[in-house]
């Protein structure tokens, strides 16, 4: 079940949510909506208009986010976002300067990637808009939201209807990935951390197998099924695990109840021992099912 974003209602005699209400709610919950997504700034002025929200994802890719209030045209929002994205790509020095100015946590030696993503949040998307998203060269995520009222509150339920990073942009059959493919443009320390991790995981059981061939993650399975999804990032390795918060009992573990009962932990040198504890729990859990 996707995670609901809580919006305190509605004050000053207001009876209907505005586009700004939707935007503020998403901005206050970006990391809940997408792990690692960080707010850079709101209402960024460009030469082609004002970007609702500029964010940075966990791979240091700028992300243009456009919002439409209930009933507004999602097609217009996608066209706007694409226009802004092309401008940002062609004026990347401005984008980079804006990000570094607003995100003090970004280290000076961390490179930003000129591979700009698009997120559009609207109350609904017609089929034509959904199909159009797959024809765009940039990665696109279309998020429909549902509103639920509870006494003096409104809850927003975001539902990802299109994600071209998952669905693919064409019918071309992609070649299976190799181990090295998953670590292209990743720092040496991330590669070394994974090598250590994989060696230790293989020692958990004789039935542990590693599959590098999938496109979006490295799968690690026991005799029955995957118990780890490995996602190498620039500053850490995200480990997706089939554990509930009650099973994990870890402040480092983040629950993603929109992902079929899986959560995740960021594997770093600091969290290594805790990550291995959770991996063993996941192995034991799925081995007994």
TrEMBL record:
UniProt GO MF annotations? nucleic acid binding
Which InterPro entries does the annotation name?
tRNA_endonuc-like_dom_sf
Q: What is this protein called?
A: Uncharacterized protein
């Amino acid at each position: 079940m996707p995670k609901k974003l809580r919006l305190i209602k509605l004050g000053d005699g207001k009876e209907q949510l505005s586009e700004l209400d939707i935007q503020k709610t998403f901005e206050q919950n970006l990391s809940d909506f997408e792990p690692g997504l960080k707010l850079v700034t709101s209402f960024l002025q460009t030469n082609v208009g004002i970007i609702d929200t500029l964010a940075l994802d966990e791979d240091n890719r700028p992300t243009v986010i456009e919002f439409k209030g209930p009933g507004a045209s999602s097609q217009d929002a996608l066209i706007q976002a694409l226009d802004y994205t092309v401008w940002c790509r062609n004026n990347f020095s401005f984008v980079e300067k804006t990000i570094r100015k607003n995100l003090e946590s970004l280290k000076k030696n961390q490179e930003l990637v000129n591979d700009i993503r698009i997120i559009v949040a609207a109350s609904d998307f017609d089929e034509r808009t959904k199909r159009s998203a797959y024809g765009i060269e940039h990665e696109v995520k279309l998020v429909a939201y549902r509103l639920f009222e509870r006494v003096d509150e409104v809850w927003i339920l975001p539902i990802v209807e299109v994600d071209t990073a998952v669905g693919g942009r064409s019918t071309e059959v992609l070649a299976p990935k190799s181990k090295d493919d998953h670590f292209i443009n990743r720092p040496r320390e991330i590669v070394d951390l994974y090598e250590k991790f994989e060696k230790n995981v293989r020692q958990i059981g004789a039935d542990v197998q590693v599959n590098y061939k999938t496109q979006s993650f490295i799968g690690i399975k026991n005799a029955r099924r995957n118990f780890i999804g490995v996602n190498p990032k620039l500053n850490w390795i995200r480990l997706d695990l089939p554990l509930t918060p009650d099973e994990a009992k870890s402040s480092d573990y983040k629950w993603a109840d929109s992902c079929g009962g899986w959560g995740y932990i960021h594997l770093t040198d600091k969290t290594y021992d805790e990550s291995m504890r959770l991996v063993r729990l996941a192995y034991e859990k799925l081995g007994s099912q």
